[in-house]
Amino acid sequence: MSSRLDIYTLQLFVTVAETKNLTQAALVRNVAPSALSKRISDLEANLQTRLFHRLRRGVEPTPAGLALYHHAQQILGSVERAEIDLADYTRGIRGHVTLLANISSIIQFLPRDLRLFRERHPDIQIALREAATPAVIRGVSEGSADLGICIASMVPHKLSVHPYNADRMVLVVPPGHPLLDYDAVTMEEALDFDFVGLHSEQVWTNYLVAASHSARKPLRMRIRVPSFDAMVSMVEAGHGISMAPIATIDRDRQLGRIVTIDIEDAWTRRVLDICHRETEMLSSAAKLLLEHLCSRAFNA
C-alpha cells in the first residue's frame, strides 16, 4: 500500500479533489487523462477504499477521499516547507514564513507593513499567498500556513487571534446608475437590481444571501465571474451592480470605469484579524513577523 502513497500520487489526488474533474486535473498536472485515471484507480485499489464518486460531469470525494485530502494537504505542505527551508540554508536565508491573507489586506496594508519587516529582517523569506477567509482559516488550522489574515468574525476559537486592521465593503455600480442619486444606500435598496457575482468568494456570496433573506427580497445573480477585475469589467459593461472591499477596486474607481456607493449596513465594516495556532508551534521567524504585524495594527 505504501509504495503507491508517494508524493506525486498525493499531488495528483489533491488536484483531482480540488478540481473535481479528471480532465481538468490532468491539464493542471500536465499528464494524460488516462494515466491520471489509472493512478487514482491504483491508489483506491491499494487503499482498498473508494476515494471518489464518479459522476456524469466529474467526480466528488467520498468521506474517505475527504479524509485523505486533509492528510495529503498537511503532508504536501510539510514537504514544501522542508524543501524551501533546506534551499534557504544554501542561500544564507535564516527563516521562512508562510502567510495567507485575504485580497483586501494584501492590497491595503501588507505592502507597507511587509516592506518595513524586510528592512529589519532581510534574512527572513516570506511566502505571501492570497486566499479567501475560509481557506485562510483552513490553511492555518492544518499547518500549511504559519499566519493568516482574514475576517475576524469567522475565526474559530481554536486559533489565537490579534486585531490587525479594518476594511469596508462598498457597492460597485457603472457610471450613470440610478443609485448614484444617493450618497449611501442599504443592501435592501441595492437588491432591487441585478448583481454580478464571484465564483471564488463564498464569504462575499454569504453576505448577499444573508442580506437577501433579511430584506425578504430575491438575490438576482445574473452572472458570476472569477475575480474582482472581471467583476469590474462586467459592471462597467452594464451586466449588473456588485459589492467589493473598497481597496480592491479603488484604481478602477479613480479611472472612472465604475463608481462606488457607501453601504449603510453595519456588517459592511469588517475587522481583520491575524490568526495562528499555538504560539509555541511557531518558528522564530514566524514569531518575529507576528510581533511586527501586531505592532502595525490599525496603521500604528
Automatic annotation (TrEMBL):
GO cellular component entries = cytosol
Q: Molecular function (GO) terms listed?
A: DNA binding; DNA-binding transcription factor activity
Record keywords: DNA-binding, Transcription, Transcription regulation
Q: Which Pfam families does this one have?
A: HTH_1, LysR_substrate
Instruction: Write down the superkingdom of origin.
Output: Bacteria
Segments crossing the lipid bilayer: none
- Listed Gene3D superfamilies: 3.40.190.290, Winged helix-like DNA-binding domain superfamily/Winged helix DNA-binding domain
UniProt keyword DNA-binding, yes or no:
yes
HTH lysR-type domain location is 5-62
PANTHER family, A to Z: HTH-TYPE TRANSCRIPTIONAL REGULATOR YBHD (PTHR30419), LYSR FAMILY TRANSCRIPTIONAL REGULATOR (PTHR30419:SF2)
Q: Which family does it belong to?
A: Belongs to the LysR transcriptional regulatory family.
* Record's protein name: LysR family transcriptional regulator
What organism is this sequence from? Answer: Sphingobium terrigena
Q: What is the lineage of its organism?
A: Bacteria, Pseudomonadati, Pseudomonadota, Alphaproteobacteria, Sphingomonadales
